[in-house]
Amino acid sequence: MENNNTRRNFLKQTAILSTGTIIGSSLFNTAFASENPLKSENQISELDTLDFQGNYSLPKLPYAYDALEPHIDKMTMEIHYSKHHQAYVTNLNKAIETLDKNLVEQSKSLESIFGKMSKFPEAIRNNGGGHYNHSLFWSLMKPNGGGTPKGKLGDAITATFGSFDEFKKQFSDASMKRFGSGWAWLVVQDGKLVIGSTPNQDNPLMSLRGKGLKGKPVLALDVWEHAYYLKNQNRRADYIASFWNVVNWDAAEALFNS
Fold it and tell me: Which pTM was predicted?
């Protein structure tokens, strides 16, 4: 119990210090995010078209830091986006600078390098995955989200899993059973919907050795502790339950149909 309390206090103190260092910019970012939202489909397409040249930057959030309250708290959103995601972007650009020039010129986007991941160093895998996964994650949430998916995705979920409730149970189970840090996914694999998870910042687009999950992402959930610890501490199940209230099914439908 003492170790848990110490860890919890450390994370909270870190969050307070981090917030203090960015308080001036955070007010601007919160206002900017709410006044100039980036549509989810545009946010996703940015990742497909941006040249792999070491000039990556944070995508604009399509909502304010507090917009997902009470399900995802403001402080977690701010730190998750402006600190954790920013670190992946910064380190990805630094890693690209160390690569052979010819390899960089032959690579057109993050998605294109995921398909030949073995040719790239671990820093590209970790930080490229971190940037892509988080950019996708932000777009798959929205204020007043949740409910049940409609259209072709809703039909496919019912056909594959029997009901939306059964899909929700299986996706939540995959999120809970991911040991340590990682992501839960709904993907299209060989024309069928499949639920699974990946460790760390890996994703289903990466060509990795072994039997890792493969497919086109439709839905993603970050289950790293930094995504929920400030609000939920070690109660990952509570965080997963909250996620269902903010899912952007329109964005998921767009991914499914793309």
Answer: 0.81
